[in-house]
Amino acid sequence: MINGGRQTAAPIRWAMAGGGRGSQIGYIHRCAALRDGNFELAAGAFDLDPARGRAFGIELGVAPERCYPDYPTMFRAEAQRADGIQAVSVATPNNTHFAITKAALEHRIHVVCEKPLCFTVAEAKELEALAASCGKIVGVTYGYAGYQLIEQARAIVARGDLGEIRIVNLQFAHGFHSAPVEKHDPAARWRVDPRFAGPSFVLGDLGTHPLYISEVILPHLRIKRLLCRRQSFVQSRAPLEDNALTLMEYDNRAFGTLWVSAVNAGAMHSQKLRIVGAKASIEWWDERPNQLSYEVQGEPARVLERGMGYLEPEARTDDRIGPGHPEGLFEAWANLYYRFALAMEATDRGDAECLACLRYPDIKAGVEGVRWVENCVRSANQGGVWVDYE
Fold first, then answer.
1. What is the CATH number of the domain that holds 215?
2. Which residues contact 240 (CB under 8 A, 6 or more apart)?
3. CA 129, 68, 96, 248 torsion: positive or negative?
4. H-helix or E-strand spanning residue 104
5. What angle do CA 361, 296, 277 make, to 5 degrees?
6. Are residue 131 and residue 94 in the same domain, yes or no?
7. Residue 375 parent element (H or E)
8. d(Cα 335, Cα 320) in Å, to the nearest integer?
């Protein structure tokens, strides 16, 4: 159980690129990183408007001289300091992720990057090679993967309790963009603009979340081929999709579906994963993240609760307030951030044994997310045909 004590030898000097006032995800990054004392916010390039970014940074307690007008200036200046930053979180629009992550790695700085990591597999592989050569980690904020019951689901599958996996049913389908909200919401506007969002909207923005969780739970499955159809129900978003359905064939003959949508009118989140085996099924829903449904054929359905003693040890490691009390997304992100911190520290001291025991969404997870989106777009752009997974 996590008791709030720092797990690193010393706080990691950390900065943010983006995440300023009005950011949708800047606050949760800071709360997650700072919660357990493993990071300290030492610098930032928080905003495209330097004056606004500086004022915001000062409000956060960052020294005025370390509130920078842009990330190149920050990386250059911090590299000259004995107490310069060791890590940066990238919380900016998608089209900047590749350049900022690459620049950080070139300055020997660890990175936590928002998804998608970049726009193409070629770019993702370049970052993967650069991270390896620099000896730094890149973490990707698939924040829902920090919920403890994801670990329980992984353990159930690994033990063989479900039997051979047959069906993988994934979805992330909310309704918040069922109308053209981007006309009045700048935070939504860039997400439907290919110049900033890249080759997809909901495939990259939503679909990669349940995809990554499925990869955690089912590490032995590999996609062989897929078929994707996508639509722009709000016509002004074309060519980017606000709804898509992907069919997937796995290498063990299992079949998968992934429905992503921003126009599922009336739905809050509807991120769900149902994994069906020959003997039993499990289901997890992010609106009820403290429960995991476990249904064995011929037996009464049961609901496993977070924090309980009957769970596997790895599903209880990250408990923060014991059973019965609901934990939420901020706790899940904090669980990822402490793992990022431990991975950064272990990497810097060359501790391969520690790294082998740490599971977190790393550069490989980022590469695979980009690969999936690229394959989906390739299929959809050909009219929704089966394509071999490349």
1. 3.30.360.10
2. 192, 193, 194, 197, 199, 200, 201, 232
3. positive
4. helix 97-106
5. 50
6. yes
7. helix 363-381
8. 9
17: three-class secondary structure by DSSP = strand
Residues 224-263 as b or e (16 or more Cβ within 10 Å = b) = ebbbbbbbbebeebeebbbbbbbbbbbeeebebebbbbbb
- Asked if residue 358 is part of any domain, the answer here is yes
- CA-CA-CA-CA torsion for 353, 357, 359, 363, nearest 10 degrees? 10
Residues 6+ apart with CB under 8 A from 238: 232
Region 87-92 average pLDDT: 98
The answer to whether residues 18 and 70 touch, using CB atoms and an 8 Å cutoff, is: no
Yes or no: say if 287 and 273 are a contact pair by the CB < 8 Å rule. Answer: no
Residue 243, helix vs strand vs coil: strand
CB 39, CB 12: distance < 8 Å:
yes
Same domain, yes or no: 86 and 58 = yes
In single-letter form, the type of residue at position 274 comes to: R
CA distance 201 to 107: 31
How far apart CA 42 and CA 103 sit, in angstroms, is 18
105 shares a domain with 175 = no
> pTM for the complete prediction?
0.96
CA distance 77 to 224: 46
What pLDDT score does 187 carry? 84
Q: Name the residue with tokens 């923060």.
A: 320
Domain assignment present for residue 325? The answer is no
CB atoms within 10 A of CB 112: 29
Please tell me the distance from the alpha carbon of residue 337 to that of residue 341, in angstroms, as a whole number. 6
Place of tokens 């496993």: 304
Element (H, E) at 331: helix 329-348
Rounded mean pLDDT of 131-137? 97
84 and 106 housed in the same domain:
yes
Structure tokens given for 192 = 């439907």
Pairing of β 165-173 and β 255-261: parallel
Instruction: Please count the structural domains in the chain.
Output: 2
Q: Do 346 and 358 form a contact (C-beta atoms < 8 A)?
A: yes
Residues 128 and 16 in one domain: yes
Structure confidence by residue, pLDDT tens digits, 61-71: 999 999 999 99
